[in-house]
């Protein structure tokens, strides 16, 4: 019991020393070598002009529909791995089933194409 | 070179004033320095030419955005040194390179000589910590932290409601012609609204720059445009080649073979393909067409036929917003560069 308590105490002392040491070390480093940015340095680079709106704004990720379509068809590829493993054993039956699966998915591709999901905007 | 050059090119941010745009482009040929696109990456600020009074405050802001240690070199025309910021140098490209390398060496060996801020160290407005994130409004909307309003939504061209970001670009933004200031409203990267506030700086050309009777002047001007345009397209090695050709461009020097070699090289970069269909306007084609016309004109100029190969018709200043609105920021910059506003200030038809 005593030995375990001593071990915990030693770990606690080591953790405290590390915490205090790192805080003091970072503090000294900031004092000694730290560069404090000034207000004019924090302004975003616009070629000499100042921004009128805050930088916190929501940005439309225009590749979003394309990435969703990509993920959907990547999942299709994942279904093909176990199919490839049993393909030799199952034979023509497996080929027909996969053909049906891909035929259904290609209807989806045609639909997405018609809706303009593959057009870069 | 009189001074010992560092082992890497000195990063230089250029703030370009009257008439100095062309000579600055020739600096892209120098191995000793590298013109960087933002002052944040530079140690030396090169103030080239006379900066008009209306842009002095902007110049101070650009100066303050260089990280310490920093130095300033002013490339002046010689007679007027009242606006000089930092060490003044007059002369050709070699003199400027020497001064820049020397300024870099001095400030890196003695960081205490770094130039202090020129703008006061105060926020435009004080922080008012209201709201869940201290932004001064409700949720993620509204409020004016540090006096700058949060972006609010507006309808965009695709039928969505997206945040609108209002920015003022210029006058010393690398891809734009120097002095040009425009207010833009961005939704994502699409320019929804463009308002031109100030035209590019005109003014007298730099001394010992291209003379009117210099037969090689049109080709040299074209090569300078090419150096900048290639840099904006991200092809800095080719931009250096174009700038090197511009520096060697004199009457009687045959630069046609190296220029055609550069053109063949550009064909392999796929640049023309990326310019196709960008910035199309009625009667003036697209950016690819304008590039072709300019390259043909440089070729004709180098071959000793400066009038051959007509320049593409310039866009009028008033029509520019209509051309830019609806484009992405990248396409807008590509379009602006293809018009070459910096080298043709006379075509603007601006009242200012």
Model description:
The complex is a heterodimer of chains A (121) and B (352). Chain A is 72% helix and 0% strand. Chain A has helices spanning 2-33, 39-42, 64-90, 92-115. The radius of gyration of chain B is 22 Å and the shape is globular.
Key attributes of the depicted protein:
heterodimer, A: 121 residues, mainly alpha, 72% helix, 0% strand, B: 352 residues, alpha/beta, 5-stranded parallel β-sheet, 4-stranded antiparallel β-sheet, 9 strands, 32% helix, disordered C terminus
Unreliable stretches covering 5 or more consecutive residues of chain A: none
Structural class of chain B: alpha/beta
End-to-end separation of chain A in angstroms reads 69 Å
Strand content of chain B: 5-15%
Distance between the termini of chain B: 42 Å
Helix percentage range of chain A: over 70%
What is the count of helical runs of chain B? 10
């Amino acid at each position: 019991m005593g030995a375990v308590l001593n071990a915990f105490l030693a770990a606690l002392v080591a953790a405290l020393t590390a915490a205090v040491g790192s805080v003091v070390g970072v503090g000294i480093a900031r004092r000694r070598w730290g560069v404090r940015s000034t207000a004019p340095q924090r302004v975003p680079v616009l070629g000499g002009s100042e921004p009128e709106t805050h930088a916190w704004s929501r940005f439309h990720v225009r590749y979003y529909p394309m990435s969703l379509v990509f993920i959907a068809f990547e999942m299709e590829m994942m279904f093909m791995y176990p199919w490839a493993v049993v393909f030799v054993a199952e034979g023509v039956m497996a080929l027909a089933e996969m053909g049906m699966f891909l035929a259904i998915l290609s209807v989806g591709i045609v639909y997405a194409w018609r809706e303009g999901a593959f057009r870069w905007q | 070179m009189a001074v010992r050059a560092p082992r890497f090119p000195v990063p230089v941010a250029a703030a370009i004033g009257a008439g100095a745009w062309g000579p600055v482009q020739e600096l892209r040929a120098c191995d000793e320095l590298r013109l960087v696109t933002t002052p944040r990456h530079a140690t030396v600020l090169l103030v080239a030419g006379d900066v008009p009074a209306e842009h002095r405050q902007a110049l101070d802001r650009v100066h303050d955005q260089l990280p310490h240690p920093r130095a300033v070199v002013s490339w002046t025309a010689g007679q007027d040194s009242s606006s000089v910021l930092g060490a003044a140098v007059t002369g050709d490209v070699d003199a400027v390179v020497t001064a820049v390398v020397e300024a870099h060496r001095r400030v890196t060996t003695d960081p205490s000589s770094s130039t202090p801020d020129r703008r006061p160290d105060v926020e435009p407005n004080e922080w008012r910590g209201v709201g869940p994130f201290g932004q001064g409004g409700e949720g993620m909307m509204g409020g004016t932290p540090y006096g700058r309003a949060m972006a609010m939504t507006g309808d965009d061209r695709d039928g969505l409601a997206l945040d609108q970001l209002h920015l003022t670009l210029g006058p010393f933004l690398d891809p734009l012609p120097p002095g040009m200031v425009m207010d833009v409203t961005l939704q994502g990267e699409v320019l929804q609204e463009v308002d031109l506030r100030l035209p590019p700086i005109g003014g007298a050309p730099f001394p010992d720059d291209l003379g009117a009777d210099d037969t090689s002047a049109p080709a040299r001007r074209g090569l300078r445009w090419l150096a900048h345009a290639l840099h904006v397209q991200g092809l800095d090695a080719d931009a250096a080649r174009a700038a090197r050709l511009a520096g060697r461009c004199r009457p009687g020097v045959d630069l046609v073979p190296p220029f055609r070699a550069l053109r063949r090289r550009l064909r392999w970069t796929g640049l023309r393909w990326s310019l196709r269909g960008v910035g199309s306007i009625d009667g003036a084609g697209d950016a690819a067409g304008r590039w072709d016309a300019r390259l043909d004109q440089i070729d004709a100029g180098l071959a000793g036929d400066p009038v051959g190969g007509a320049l593409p018709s310039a866009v009028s200043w008033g029509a520019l917003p209509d051309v830019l609105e609806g484009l992405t920021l990248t396409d807008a910059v590509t379009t602006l560069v293809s018009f070459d506003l910096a080298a043709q200030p006379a075509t603007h038809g601006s009242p200012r």
